[in-house]
């Protein structure tokens, strides 16, 4: 067993093997009549058994007790109905939306990573495995002896404030702001808060898993490199007669069951369905070195593909620190209308497209075909700036959840969170005609 539990296996979607005790993985087969150390063998399937090999994902877990050893589930009264997994009846608006930073837990509020989840927007339905949800989390309590799994889809977690110390069935992961973490459907985990209160964003996909984007003519390297994705190593707790709660998000509702032992009792595992994290500072940025503003797809970290080639259910895109060197170019984001919806958040610093109002911990949404672009002040400055090579966005990290689906906004997101900026539309009001029929 490794002494430091925060040691990682490198590589994206590799077929890993990991043992917390020597020879705890069965040799040459998955289900021997008796497993080493009298462990139970359990398969966790992340794709249908019959999915082609290129996309098939599953892991084998060798554990002290099988996961099925728990009492029946009943609804968890979490004091909030702010989770959603079907967006048929949520609010719709074609307006540009922007949110002030979402609250950290307020005085007197006690929330953990699960009870502090709030759905802001989404599309589709987890029951038919089509669509996505965007959540904000805020928490000030360790989950301690409460574990969680999401039956609805995969979580891509984007911490904005405070580290997350995540114990999973596969091992331990420490995630900092400016790192992201993916925990797939069904995987059990518990989140503690080593720095105190936390806040962040989550992109949940209902139908498929995250992949690295294809690189096309970029070649075999660049953007997020596969070796920089890391997966925890096997780690187990052998605790009897402890009271544990297992919470699940099942079609957007929380249920809880008791069990008398730690769910983190996996001594060894192997497979390619396992959680991972990635440090956004490792992103190899590629961009124009001649002229023009390149589309933000060039900054895609991970994508969840739809069945239509080239069209994503959801892309996770970042706007990382980099050099801007383009000549004769309006360098900030252009004005545009998109057949995709763009939900943006800010982890640190400022965003190059806006002069104020878009703050760390806040968000914006420009839905399908909703026009947007640089605000008037950014436009003015960038249209006249001297075009030296400049560092863009040092000390900053904005990101975008981009989806081909039309996003609806929840009651919490539009009303109850009380963070929507009514004057956002005014960012563009000062963009007056500069037209002259006489060419100059
Ligand atoms: O709207 C935004 O700020 C995101 C964005 C950035 C960019 O560089 C080009 C297009 C785009 O949608
Ligand atoms: Fe945009």
Automatic annotation (TrEMBL):
Metabolic or biological pathway: Amino-acid degradation; L-phenylalanine degradation; acetoacetate and fumarate from L-phenylalanine: step 4/6
Cofactor(s) the record lists: Fe cation
Domain Homogentisate 1,2-dioxygenase N-terminal span(s) in chain numbering: 7-280
Amino acids binding Fe cation: 336, 342, 372
Annotated catalytic residues: 293
Annotated family: Belongs to the homogentisate dioxygenase family.
Name recorded for this polypeptide: homogentisate 1,2-dioxygenase
Lineage of the organism: Eukaryota, Fungi, Fungi incertae sedis, Mucoromycota, Mucoromycotina
């Amino acid at each position: 067993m490794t002494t430091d539990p925060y040691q990682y296996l490198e590589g994206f979607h590799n077929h890993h093997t990991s043992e917390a005790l020597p020879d705890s993985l069965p040799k040459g087969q998955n289900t021997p009549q008796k497993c080493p150390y009298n462990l139970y063998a359990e398969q966790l399937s992340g794709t249908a058994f019959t999915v082609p090999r290129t996309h098939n994902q599953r892991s084998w877990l060798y554990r002290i007790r099988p996961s099925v050893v728990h009492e029946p589930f009943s609804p968890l009264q979490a004091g909030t109905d702010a989770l959603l997994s079907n967006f048929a009846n949520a609010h719709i608006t074609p307006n540009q939306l922007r949110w002030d930073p979402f609250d950290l837990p307020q005085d007197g509020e006690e929330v953990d990573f699960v009870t502090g989840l709030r759905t802001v927007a989404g599309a589709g339905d987890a029951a038919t495995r089509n669509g996505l949800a965007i959540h904000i989390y805020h928490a000030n309590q360790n989950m301690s002896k409460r574990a969680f799994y999401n039956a609805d889809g995969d979580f891509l977690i984007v911490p904005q404030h405070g580290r997350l110390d995540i114990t999973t069935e596969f091992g331990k992961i420490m995630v900092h702001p400016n790192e992201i973490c993916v925990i797939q459907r069904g995987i059990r985990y518990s989140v503690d808060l080593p720095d105190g209160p936390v806040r962040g964003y989550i992109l949940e996909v209902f139908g498929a898993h995250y992949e690295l984007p294809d690189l096309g003519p970029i070649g075999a390297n660049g953007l997020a490199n596969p070796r920089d994705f890391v997966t925890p190593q096997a780690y187990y707790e052998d605790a009897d007669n402890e009271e544990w709660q297992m919470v699940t998000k099942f079609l957007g509702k929380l249920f809880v069951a008791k069990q008398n032992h730690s769910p983190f009792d996996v001594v060894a595992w192997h497979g390619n369905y396992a959680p991972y994290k990635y440090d956004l500072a490792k992103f190899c940025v590629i961009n124009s070195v001649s002229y023009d503003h390149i589309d933000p797809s060039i900054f895609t970290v991970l994508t969840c593909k739809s069945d239509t080639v080239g069209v994503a259910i959801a892309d996770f895109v970042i706007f990382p620190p980099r050099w801007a060197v383009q000549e004769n170019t309006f360098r900030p984001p252009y004005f545009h209308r998109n057949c995709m919806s763009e939900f943006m958040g800010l982890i640190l610093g400022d965003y190059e497209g806006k002069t104020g109002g878009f703050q760390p911990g806040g968000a914006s949404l420009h839905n399908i075909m909703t026009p947007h672009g640089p605000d008037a002040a950014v436009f003015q400055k960038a249209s006249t700036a001297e075009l030296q090579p400049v560092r863009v966005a040092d000390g900053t990290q904005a990101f975008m959840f981009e989806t081909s689906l039309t996003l609806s906004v929840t009651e919490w997101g539009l009303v109850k969170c009380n963070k929507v900026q009514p004057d956002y539309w005014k960012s563009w009001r000062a963009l007056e005609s500069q037209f002259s029929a006489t060419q100059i």
